[in-house]
Amino acid sequence: MNGFQALVLGIVQGLTEFLPISSTAHLRIVPHLIGWDDPGAAFSAVIQLGTLVSVIVYFRGDVVKLSLAAIESLMKRNLWLSGESRLAWAIALGTFPIVLLGLLFKETIETEARGLMVIGISLIVFAVFLFISEKISLQKRVISELSVKDVLIIGICQAFALIPGCSRSGSTITGGLFLGLKREDAARFSFLLGLPAIAGSGLFELFSLFEDGLGQTGIIEILIGISAAFVSGYYSIELLLNFIKKHGTIIFVLYRIILGTTILFLWA
Predict the structure, then answer these.
(1) Fewer CB in 10 Å around end: N or C, the chain?
(2) Helix 116-136 vs helix 23-34: angle between axes, to the nearest 10 degrees?
(3) Considering only CA atoms, which of 74, 95, 99 is closest in space to residue 85?
């Protein structure tokens, strides 16, 4: 992989990480179309650090507020001290399913699960779930009304994103809609819930790459990929929040079905 390839893949990562269309699928499909080698699950996870920074910057007010509330609750030995602290610790709890399953099935996720057949089927199946959630959701609730149980349910939905083609944002937005969240609140909470998971997987794979003897060229490529993912990811957040509030998720449902069908027909 050279610097140009890292740049392209970083842009793809940033644009698709937050849209409910699966960044993993696109990081697998785009190289396949161009004739490049599969960058691998490790590189894909590492450049997620760019999208992590974009979320922190975009939602810096929420991140600071939740972090301070969590620290204060620890100091006062009361995790449910306030609404912000309850939400912060609920997010930590909601991250547990994806961490546990990610560690248990790490090898499968990085090998067999990256096949185009799996990605094509996953794109279509989870498009159907997203469509159903869009149609039956009451869309009356806001983030502050979520209970710990609600957050854990969305966290379980997030764990499905370990299946390439599912989409972390797509699965969590789907879970939020099923629980009656407004579209923009479901998307906003998807970003906040994803912070620990993206940080954990990205840093874990980054350390793994260094342990395997990453050279200077590799460092430059990773930095290019992370930087490109940050810039494109930042604008992708704003695009999704504005679009989903006005137009819903149907366009993403159609895109997923068309892409998944194309993959199964041409390559799987």
Answers:
(1) C
(2) 140
(3) 74
What CA–CA distance (Å, rounded) separates 75 from 68?
A: 11
Per-residue pLDDT reduced to its tens digit, 147-163: 989 999 999 999 999 99
pLDDT (0 to 100) of residue 45:
78
- For 226-236, write each residue's pLDDT tens digit: 999 999 999 99
| Coil/strand/helix, residue 181 | strand
Residues of the chain under the 70 pLDDT cut: 41, 110, 112-113, 209-210, 212-217, 268
Any idea what DSSP says for residue 167? Answer: -
* pTM for this entry: 0.89
Task: Please report which residue ranges of the chain form alpha helices under DSSP H.
Answer: 3-17, 23-34, 40-46, 48-58, 60-75, 83-104, 106-110, 116-136, 148-159, 168-178, 183-211, 216-247, 250-266
Between helices 48-58 and 216-247, what is the axis angle to 10°?
50
Q: Scanning the structure block, which residue is given the tokens 């409910």?
A: 20
Buried b (16+ CB within 10 A) or exposed e, 238-263: eebbebbeeebbeebbeebbebbeeb
The answer for residues whose C-beta is within 8 angstroms of residue 217's C-beta and 6 or more apart is none
Instruction: Give residues with Cβ within 8 angstroms of 132, minimum separation 6.
Output: none
The domain segmentation of the chain, as residue ranges, is 3-266
CB-based burial label for 21 (10 Å; 0-12, 13-18, 19+): buried
Provide the phi-psi class of 165: left if phi over 0, else alpha when psi is between -120 and 50, else beta.
left
